[in-house]
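Subject: Sanity check before I submit

Could someone independently write out the structure tokens for this chain? I want to compare against mine line by line before I put it in a report. The sequence has 401 residues.
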Amino acid sequence: MKKIYMDHNATTPVHPEVFEEMLPFLKDEWGNPSSIHWAARAPRKAIDDAREKVCAFLNCSPVEVIFTSCGSESDNLAIKGVALAKKSKGNHIITTRVEHPAVLNTCKYLEKEGFDVTYLDVDSEGLLSLDRLREAITPKTILITIMYVNNETGVIFPIGDIGKIAKERDITFHTDAVQAAGKLPLDVKSLNCDLLSISGHKLYAPKGVGALYAKRGVRLVPLIHGGHHERNRRGGTENVAGIAGLGRAVEVAARDMEKENERLKKLRDRLHKGLVERVPHVKLNGHPEKRVANTLNISFEFVEGESLLLNLDMLGVAASSGSACTSGSLEPSHVLLALGLTPEVSHGSVRFSMGKSNTEEDIDYILEKMPPIVERMRSMSPLWDEAAKKGGAIAFEKKSC
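---
Independent answer below. Compare away.
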């Protein structure tokens, strides 16, 4: 059976160059990097080298990089770490309604611990109003945490401008850049951020490794207490192979980003145009321009997204109905609801997220197989005939933030 992987926002395969970088530390160089004997030297050097590579990728210094186990841990360390460190100065946090669960659920946890959280709305294209952000700031605001790129729609937020607003008010600013890494430049100075999270498995490194940029001088209460690892900010023996892989992955990403973005944008637009031409009553979710090159989120009216995905899977196409971290939930996407879609239309959404393995032939295969699947599924819907007679307009509310 033909296999086409269109779920790179959920995870990516390990790049061959990354695998080769990791291999020595999975086989021969197995020493604990904190030891003082010969077995520790190569692992310690690998961590130091990887830290330098991540620093070059982010334009920061080595003391500002903390290696973690994933993007979720990086987000938790940033948000909880700052909240607990600054609770004597205030208890107000600002975020958005479309954040990844790693941010939203961390903020909900902190609400139970006495913190106040403002969840900013977005408009019907997923964009954020900077005026609303300014209005939300209070004298008790200690942290703003807003993602760089939305994992479901690919919409890009103006992180540099948000960082300027935070800096003007002396508020710590964190951005979840997990979906931006490898797709957009991550210069922490031009982004005006104090903290920035990335995850290895979103940019062709293995699962189980991530990093948090923490600007020099930003105080964090650690999540994990243990040894003196990561300058006392994250206890636990380092994942040497994963860290080495992450270091190589960011090098590859920086090298290939421009050409890969050009290629992926052509594939994304070819798929979008073909679906609009072949399937009636579909809607793009998110802004048509202000989004990363690899992501297409589209709703099919009167089609249940999970069933659509199962039909695609039987034909060898792997896609998603939203975030992989919420795929076990029967609830409609919180991101699409925030854009104003009805629960019914939200349930009919599919996210195609493309990567290095995808080709024009993959796009043409999906364009061949998708229309009959949608037509067959709609023919079983008692509401479809009536809706088609009325024009079948997509059911969503135009909204502004």
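---
OP: Matches mine. For the report I'm noting this point. Residues 16-253 form a domain with the Aspartate Aminotransferase; domain 2 fold (CATH 3.40.640.10).
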